[in-house]
Amino acid sequence: MSENTSYSEVLREMQEIAAEWRRNDYTYAEGQKERYDFLVQVRRLRVSQFYADDRVYVGPIQSK
């Protein structure tokens, strides 16, 4: 990912690739699968960083 790509752009590009994948009878165009896999990896790293920084709301613990 380039330095100037925002995480919202990553999500938008993932959504565009997924929409095109559906329009193309669930087949990827050349290079799309690799790009999508790369974007998923970037997204997972970002989410794991949120967990590492304790920036994820876990919610109240409900006892039974």
Can you describe what's shown?
There is one protein chain. With 64 residues, the protein is mainly alpha-helical. It is 59% helix and 0% strand. It has one domain (7-52). It is built from two helices and no strands. The longest helix has 21 residues, at 32-52. The protein is elongated. The mean pLDDT is 90.
Query: What is the chain-wise order of helices and strands?
Result: HH
What is the mean predicted local confidence, pLDDT?
90
Radius of gyration: 16 Å
Q: Give the beta-strand count.
A: 0
**Tally of helical runs:** 2
Gist?
With 64 residues, this protein is mainly α. It contains two helices and no strands. The chain is elongated.
Tell me the layout of helices and strands.
Blueprint: H1 7-23, H2 32-52
Helix pairs in contact: 1-2
